[in-house]
Amino acid sequence: MPPMSPTSSCETNREQGRPSHTQYVASTGQGMLELEQWDIPLGCSGDSTSGMCETDLYERLPGRNARCNICQRGCLVAEGGTGYCMTRQNQKGKLYSLIYGEVSCLAVSPTEKKPVFHFYPASRWLSLGSLGCNFRCPGCQNWRIAHSTLLEEQSPSTKYLSPEDCVALARQHKCLGISWTYNEPTLWFEYTLKAAKLAKYNGLFTNYVTNGFMTQAALDRIGPYLDVFRVDIKGFSSATYKKIANVDDFYGILAVTERAKSRWGMHVEVVTNVIPGYNDDDTQLSGIASWVRQNLGEDTPWHVTQFVPHLELSHIMPTPIATLERARQIGFENGLHYAYVGNIPGHPGQNTYCPKCHSLLVKRDGFSVAENRIVAGKCPQCSGSIAGRFG
């Protein structure tokens, strides 16, 4: 099926050209590794300073000010200034994205890396990210790109990839879908929206790996074109979110996540990176598990992952395995059918078991699926239904 014709004005001023390489990044559940060069023609053009596009969701205000309505910060941006994320700039009263189509890292990776365990296990996804974040967590594993912007002299290099070429690349590599990840995809909203529309037209699935801090307006704009919502719930208190993300109110994140499922029917999986001394107490873990059960449903997967020291939290030791096992048990005690231990390769808590007869169904080895016994969405032992899509 041919791709849709371009409709966006965000690419009309680019000079034609074709780079011989783009940067791919190798990644693991423990963060970024080194950049590699892959000789894959992309048919993209331009340079890393021209990825500009007038943003979709903002208000023009008196005095050439602008209010950004992409994320829940709702930044008031003066002329010449930028918002908190540093990816949107006010130019003469109009708000522009500075990162439209600018790719900092790209890879073909399994869905288990997101992690997403109940949406076509072992499927391949074109995974890509840009620059910037609206949180800038002190222990961010991807801080080299998430804490960087194109406005910095020493910002990471990027390459332009059009939405059309993004879809073509996914099809070329026989990917099931496209995943916007590595940094917060909401900041890439204009680009991901167009790419998601094209992806759906071409029979591909789509995925946000997100902190969930988008506005309802942004969610509703992209909702019809997004299949998987893999969201981080970083804690269950305002104090924790203030320490981790400089956010005063996390209830908006919960509301957006609930709406992604109830209004748009997205497949939702929740991740909590368990940080010692921040969100590892039973009260918060029980709060998250209870909220998932009551508002997303007992079949919603919850991944409790090991924190690995990075950046300003380099002094904190990795999460003890016993803490993760306790968190997983809290999930079960609160009625969840699928709770997983993450970032611990070989741990039995990364496998999928039948919630009815407890038979091993999906055996995982790191990011690989060693065995998948699910047949037509059912357990072969007891014929119990297993939530998700399994092909």
CATH homologous superfamily grouping of the largest domain? Aldolase class I
Gross CATH architecture of the largest domain: Alpha-Beta Barrel
CATH hierarchy, class of the largest domain: Alpha Beta
How many helices does DSSP assign?
8
Count of DSSP strands: 21
Kindly report the spatial arrangement of strands forming the biggest sheet: 10-11-13-14-15-16-17-18
Roughly how many Å is the radius of gyration?
Answer: 20 Å
Helix content: 10-25%
- Nearest-integer average pLDDT: 88
End-to-end separation in angstroms reads 22 Å
**Helix/strand-derived class?**
alpha/beta
- Overall, the morphology is globular
Description:
By secondary structure, this protein is of the alpha/beta class. The chain has three domains: 53-97, no CATH class; 102-349, Aldolase class I (TIM Barrel, Alpha-Beta Barrel); 351-391, no CATH class. The protein contains eight helices and 21 strands. The chain has helices at 143-146, 163-172, 189-201, 216-222, 238-245, 251-262, 282-296, 321-333; strands at residues 22-28, 31-38, 53-54, 58-61, 65-68, 76-77, 88-91, 94-97, 102-103, 105-110, 124-129, 159-160, 177-180, 205-210, 228-232, 267-274, 302-306, 339-342, 352-353, 360-365, 368-372. The strands form six sheets. It has an eight-stranded mixed β-sheet. A three-stranded antiparallel β-sheet has the order 3-8-7, with no helix packed on it. The protein has a three-stranded antiparallel β-sheet with strand order 4-5-6, with no helix packed on it. The protein is globular. The model is unreliable at 1-49 (pLDDT under 50).
